[in-house]
Design brief:
By secondary structure, the protein is α/β, with parallel strands linked by helices. It contains 7 helices and 5 strands. A 5-stranded parallel β-sheet has the order 3-2-1-4-5, with helices on both faces. The protein is globular, with a radius of gyration of 14 Å.
Length: about 140
Amino acid sequence: MRIFVDANIFLDVQRRRGNWDASYSILKSAVEGKNQGFASALTPAIIYFLRRGVTPEDQARKDTLDVIAGFNIVDLTDSLIRAAFEEKRVEGFEDAIQFHSAKQSNSILITRNKKDFQKVSNEIEVLTPEEFLKKYMT
């Protein structure tokens, strides 16, 4: 199954926040090849900048590469960025990038902020980690 993982799922695991174990299961499924994992090119930048604030440069780079291992990165092309800027159904620009990246990768969008994608859920399937695990991994 093709899954696009929103940046907040990676951050759940990295920060051990909320139901991070479900998010970890999602990431693990891609690393182990049970699902084909995709992430926006914006995601490693987000992870890196957050890690850079608490670890040295070399460690932040290593941590970021470790976190995104096993994922296909969806390029931030001119057309994708323009589509995100023009997107009116998704409020935040970062979320619009995530949506258009998921759509481009023809994947299920897995996110913690499902409500942010309500108006586009007729175009792609949008699930929380727990919903995905229950629906597809049991």
